[in-house]
Give the backbone structure.
Amino acid sequence: MTQEKFRFLEHTADAKFQAYGRTIEEAFANAALATASLMWDPGGIARKIQIPVSARGHDLEQLLVRFLGEILYLVESRFFLMGSAEEIKIEKHEAEYALEAVFWGDANSDAYETHGGVKAVTYNEMKITKNDGYTVQVVLDV
Amino acid sequence: MELRKISDNIWEIPKQGEMRVPAMIYASAKLLESVRRDLTLTQARNVACLPGIQRMSYVMPDAHQGYGFPIGGVAAFDMEEGVISPGGVGYDINCGVRLLRTDFTAEEIAARRQELLAEILKEVPAGVGKGGITKLSRGVLLEILRRGAEWAVEHGYGRKEDLLMTEEYGRMKDADPAHLSARAMERGIPQLGTLGAGNHFLEIQKVSHIYDEKKARVFGIEAEGQVTVMIHCGSRGLGHQVASDFIEIMENAYGTKGLPDRELINAPVRSRLGQEYYVSMCSAVNYAFANRQMIAHWVRDVFARVMGSSEGMRQIYDVCHNVAKIERHTIGGREREVCIHRKGATRSFGPGRPEIPEAYRPHGQPVLIPGSMGTASYLLVGTAEAEELSFSSTAHGAGRVMSRHEALRRFRGEQIRDDLRKRGIELQSASWKGVAEEASEAYKDVDEVVRVSHEVGIGCMVARLVPVGVMKG
């Protein structure tokens, strides 16, 4: 089992990463960190406020796209920089998956150095695999 | 993948398997090499399998791998049997370029360059998580989504004649924001009038070479050394959200079975969902037009303050690089309407097209191709041949060859700033990391891209512009 949270892979145009976890929830939390790391240093964001987040998807891929999309939505609409995604719970109901989580971070984006910019979370080359733990692979449109 | 060479710059993927039409690639041997390294050709082949596709699935000289459709992909679909696809437009709807001419020479602004850039950086918000300076109500946003740059001009941003010199005259009339999600609206409200980050930039340039004096003069370029201003940005989070929303809505309606790539999801052009996407996309296009209109206005303000005048800062043109449109084209000798997708491609109408402003109509449409940071950009002109060759389309930029992550590993923003300064280019940015990610080495050679466009005849060189001052988001 790797200790690594996420790793970026070579991709000509966009940003492609794999995030790892012992559970699917941990892999999702690390995918959130990888996404944020393209715009700011999540480790350097103060734990000032928490925002509850929920997402639904007819499969795990759609759930992941919607979940990571929350990071983009919150920075652009509320200037909230996510430092960590915690208390993630993923449940399978009949025809869909549901996710609940809490984002910790700071809504004072002017206080931090930001860079890059992510336009969207894509389905391109998306893979969610279970081996010893879970690996999720994501390509972000940057 | 098997490619048939048609000429030095033209390659074909012959029709095979489930392809309904062949794919046509415009690239030199050198550009083809980088195209072959990623999934561009597979994606062009996938597009050729979509229902109702007409003639060919086209690939422009700057193409690289996208999601669903390649970036630099052009495809036209039959209005009855064809489809419209959010992945065929891209996430940054109406990412585009605006070019202003000025009466200044590079020497005249040399001493004030830093001041100009610093002032522009103050006026035009840029970077991740930085809001615009205008607080919008939902009602005003709806108005902007319906009316685009027209709204901006009416509210004091820029000049009426700017609208004439904008693709679609700054407003797609089919726009209807009724189907935009609350999230799209929430992402749009704080970001109007912002440049954004990533590959978006604002540049003060000088004309370094004129290839076609007559056309250059028509467009407002008179001499080498003349200063121009280029603005490159799009519809910001609002457009990104529209794309994400409709990919999801279409997936939920049609499922993803049988699609080689989820982002090829599409809906029949005339279907309810197809139409809802189209009118929403038009709304995002209008948002981007308004955005560039406001930024251009602030740039003029800065020039007026710092240089004493902005009088001669006429808009040469404003083009969309990511868009789907209903256009008339001649197919099999018959002129008819199609739904054309240009994803990372520029419309390049030749002389006579009614969509071109009257002053340019005898000459062809100006085509604006931005380079990467610190490299040249180009002013081209659309051609009559482009109609037959690419449904009147050409390249849109340099196209990446290296990931941001790799660029960040190899380059340092401050070093790039110093290197550019030695070459006479001032650089200001909201972030040095962002600068490293956009190092020109991470992009294809724009000179080569434009040369191929010119030689194939889908967009011909008019003038080359080089940066003297760059502001990065």
Notes: The mean pLDDT of chain A is 93. The domain at 6-141 of chain A is CATH 3.55.10.10 (Archease, Possible Chaperone; Chain: A; domain 1). Chain A is about 25% helix and 45% strand. The two ends of chain A are 30 Å apart (CA to CA).
